[in-house]
Amino acid sequence: MKMTAPPARPAATAFCETSFVMAPGECHGGHVHESWHLLYVAAGGFEEAGDSGGFHVRAGTWRLSPAGLAHEIRCGEDGARCRNIHITDRALQSRLSHRLERRHHVLDGLDADPNDITSDPLLAELILYELVARAILACLGEDGPPAWLADARAEMISEPGRIDATARRFTVSREHFSRLYARHYGCSPRLTRRNAALAQALRLLRESDEPISEIAVMTGFYDQAHLTRAVTARLGQTPGAIRAVAVSGSRNSNTAVRASE
Question: Can you give the residue ranges of the HTH araC/xylS-type domain (predicted)?
Fold first, then answer.
């Protein structure tokens, strides 16, 4: 089995992703995973057997599995190309263990496209939280979010603002909004707001020449010090250091272009 890993993500991320390819007829013997995980079969398929019985996993299917459940995989004649998303957030693992049976869950009704998982690690984390929440609801046979909640989420990502103001705009209490949001999107509105604001700030740091103090205000932080604390805590670098790397890379690129002319 050939394994590949995506580019490194921030240390604080709640997920760890890998991809693997299995040759036709290949067998991956009995093994267990250390955490709950989502697996997506992008192409091909395989037969799986283990502690919770046997079943077939075909292309285009998601499977949600618990930690410590022994199983083995045997590929068909077309092999398989898969993507594994391991859930490292302990609170999320606990929620899964509390709400779902300890078995493999094949999610035929989960129409999520893994290509929607953006290369931006901060926004990708939000999509993965939502994916797990949707998987839980699919396993329980429950409906997705109401339209107004989906609108509120889109608004929070595109224009991060105060959570209580968003709740008031949709005529619900902050407490009700937060509970319903976590149920359908797998994380708190606060985490969504923080990640969206950080993603916007990082884009401006790398792509604009706006003063860092202005970027802080533009993206919803109280001031430059607040932005610096948030960026450093998440990425281990200050905004100034991130901008310096971006400027250096741009200069090197321009020098290379001029040299080739």
Answer: 157-245
pLDDT of residue 8: 38
Q: Report residue 129 CA to chain centroid gap.
A: 6
Instruction: Please determine whether the domains at 2-119 and 147-243 fall in the same fold group of CATH.
Output: no
Q: What's the CATH code, domain 2-119? A: 2.60.120.10
Please provide the size of the chain in residues: 261
Q: What are phi and psi of 74, to 5 degrees?
A: -130, 120
Q: From the centroid of its chain, how far is CA 255?
A: 36
- For residue 100, what are its two tokens? 């779902």
CB 110 within 8 A of CB 134: yes
Identify the bridge partners of residue 4 per DSSP, sorted by sequence position: 19
Nearest partner of 105 among 143, 76, 145, 134, judged by Cα = 134
**Structure token digits, residue 23:** 């040759």
